[in-house]
Amino acid sequence: TIMPLSRHTGQIPESTWTLGFREMTEPWKGAVGCLGVAVFFAMTIGIISWQAVEQSPEQWVLRGRDAGFCYSWEEDAELRLSLEPPAAPGTECYGVRWTPLRPDVTLKDCFSMANVSWYGGPSIRAQRWPLNSAESPAQPLVSGDLSTNPDGFGPVLERYFLGSTGVTVTVAPDVSLLLSLESHRQFCLETPEGRAEPLHYQLCVIPSPGAGNPSKCPAWFPKHLTRNFPPCRSPIWRYLGPEGSAAKIRRGLRSLVRRLKRHRLQEGVVALGERGTAVLAAVDLQPSERRKRQAPALVEPLELSITLSPYASVTSPLFLRSLRGGEAAGYWLSRQPRPGGSSIPLLTTWKGQLCARLNVTSEAALGWYLARAQHLQQALGATYMAFEGVEGNSFLEQDVPAPTELAGDGYSEVLAAALATLGNGTVISAGTRSSHLPLFVQMSPLHSDWSHAGLKGLIPSVLHYSLLGYNFLIPDAVGGSLAGATPGDPELFVRWLQIVTFLPVMAFGTPPWLCCDAWVLNLTRQCIQRHRDFVVPLLLKYSEEWQSLGYPIFRPAWWLSPADPIAFTIEDEFLIGDEVLVAPITEKGQTWRDIYLPGEGHLWLDTNTARVFDGGTTLRNYSANLAEVPVFVK
């Protein structure tokens, strides 16, 4: 369903009405006007359907990018529909462009969720799969930090929506866009009020054969990546010890490594947070200290990951020097100066401190920042570097005009491209138009509970990230890292552990020997072993398919059952490629669940019991005790 116009006047737009029509009563005018609009859209849809299904390409009415229909509501808006080159073989694509003819006209197109499941778009706090049950007021479709704005959009999003009927909606990055989600009713694309900006997007459909198969729809992201993606050395152990001084951090890191060795978990990566990294940087980046220590072995035999961000506190020496001018004067985002005036730094809040943000439009600033990161990586002997705070538009948050290149998610896109030059060991906190880059993406923190903001949201988030091309994701720590309703729950820890075993990286905050008993500790060892021996080879295999064909690595049930309506709403199981189905328990206290086996005509082997079942069926009340996670191999 497309709603062509939302006007402030609430009246039918006049064009060349006859005198007899002008003399009609208002209800009759409205009825006739609505009938005219309905007839226009019926004709448009009919012609598109007729030319796509019944006519040869030589007879098509819409021929090429510049040809097509154009219809105008005088004094309000103009609509242009045009045939565009197909985004993928077997698809047909149409350009839809609305142009306002008055500054007070707001353009709004809505797409129905009735009998259609929609995927893609933004990540949200309590992720759903599909998007149909999500709710959000109209707000800019720009990435954001869910920890500071839980009602906003999350750090990974694309202007790409995929419908279960085989339709895609793709909005160009230069369109100023608001998105609203109305649960089980519709989602709407809207232009900002009072801006008189056009709304244009591309609609692609699969007419035949295989109509309605969303897995055959064109993906928005590039299919050919710039580099291969070697899996991160899993698991990741987050350092949560003292950070008061460099000496305390080093002692804490050594203590963590000793405990990992004692519990026979001496592999993977120790991750140091931003504060700990900054404390060590204050010492290790001093010239005298660099001469004393080159690449200290802080966490051997494990590897080290450090954390940085593009923010600088206003009390930091570097920022204070920049206020006095000189080399660092243009290193930070600034408000656009008035004529004859000087630029003023655009200050924002980051982790409770007033900060300036790196100016990614300055080559000098980017060069300085990347060189500083590389020097710190070498000084600390780090293998991986994680960058937080990549998401968000600081200008939009403060209602300040942004430079053209930083409109929308321009900041995240530019910074991600720069960080990709640091190598395959780079992790970023956001993804928008950057899925083709060799970067790991850190997923948003989840609550320590069983809700969609906690464990239940993990699989929908994985499917969402993977559909948008962000397959090499790092999930939140096992058990969640945000306070929830059930902190320290051993059952929650186990069920979480069973899911992340089948993801690219396993990450831990609270180690298993602190939260749980010896049985859980032993289970953790088994899951790490299974991840290394069973999951990593699968990821390597399907990463090649992703690079060549653009298919996601983690796939929903409908990927193998595109004609079964049941498959479109399953959000608690996922496929790795086409050959492994993971169906974990996500309800507290349950030791059974219903499992949908996709792919009619296929056979599925339960890896726990060696029993074989037919695809296209549902296993009712299938047993899965706390020590088991149902995994099937095709």
From TrEMBL:
Coiled coil location: none
Every Glycosyl hydrolase family 31 C-terminal domain range: 550-634
Transmembrane segments: 31-53
Entry keywords, A to Z: Membrane, Transmembrane, Transmembrane helix
SUPFAM superfamilies assigned: (Trans)glycosidases, Glycosyl hydrolase domain
Signal peptide: none
Protein name: SP15 protein
Organism of this sequence: Certhia familiaris
Gene coding for it: Sp15
